[in-house]
Amino acid sequence: MDAMDWKTLESTYIFRDEWLTARRDKCERPDGRIIEPYYVLEYRDWVNVVAFTKTGKVLMIRQFRQAYGATIIELPGGTMDPEDASPTVAAERELLEETGYKFEQIEYLGNVSANASTSNNRTHMFLATGGEKVAEQDLDDNEEIEVMELTVDEVKQLLRENKVVQALHVTNMLYAFERTGDIKM
User: Fold this and answer.
1) Rounded to an integer, what is the distance from CA 125 to the centroid of its chain?
2) Is residue 38 part of a domain?
């Protein structure tokens, strides 16, 4: 425990749903001050993957995002399901469902927070290599996903032009491309 950590004195759930839970906390700071209310949004953890095919192409996807109000380009990935034994299992499942590809190797790159001040979940980042198409997409009822196979240079151009708007996906690309030597940090 860090000396700056707050203590949660009470938590009251004000909304619960499969995809979003909101709670109101009463917290005590190390100096004894009480912070109330402090709202926290609870989500399942997420996974996303920079995925390279055997031919060296990067798999990207296009899909409509209601909250953003547009069709966007992003990485394959999604929400961890309760039955997923680990983030790696979730990443493998999401890759197969969204793209139809299986991969020889999936490397964990760490996790980041979408907004550590209000959301409790993490996004687990992966680098997958040696991908080969083995199946057709197996999409959820609310998904319509176009798979794109791009060169690293094409992906870098999308980044330069601010055409990848998912901040957590851009972060994963940074970690993955540093690992593959496609960028230097």
Assistant:
1) 7
2) yes
In the block, tokens 């190390």 appear at: 30
Neighbouring C-beta atoms of residue 88, cutoff 10 Å: 15
**Tokens of residue 147, six digits:** 């798979």
| Residue 71 and residue 161 share a domain | yes
Tokens representing 52 are 């390279």
For the chain, the domain total comes to: 2
> Which ranges in 30-135 belong to alpha helices (H)?
87-99
Reduced to 3 states (helix: H, G, I; strand: E, B; else coil), residue 9 is strand
CB 85 within 8 Å of CB 127: no
List the helix and strand counts (H, then E) for the chain.
Answer: 3, 11
Instruction: Let me know if residue 185 belongs to a domain.
Output: no
* Coil/strand/helix, residue 96: helix
pLDDT of residue 15: 97
pLDDT of residue 71: 97
C-alpha R_g of the chain: 19
Q: Given a cut of 90, is residue 1 above it in pLDDT?
A: no
pLDDT at residue 142 tops 90: no
Q: What is the pTM of this model?
A: 0.94
Task: Tell me how far CA of residue 86 lies from CA of 26, 45, 46, 52, in angstroms.
Answer: 31, 10, 11, 21
Q: What is the pLDDT of residues 85-109, one digit of tens each?
A: 999 999 999 999 999 999 999 999 9
User: What tokens appear for 139 in the block?
Assistant: 């999409």
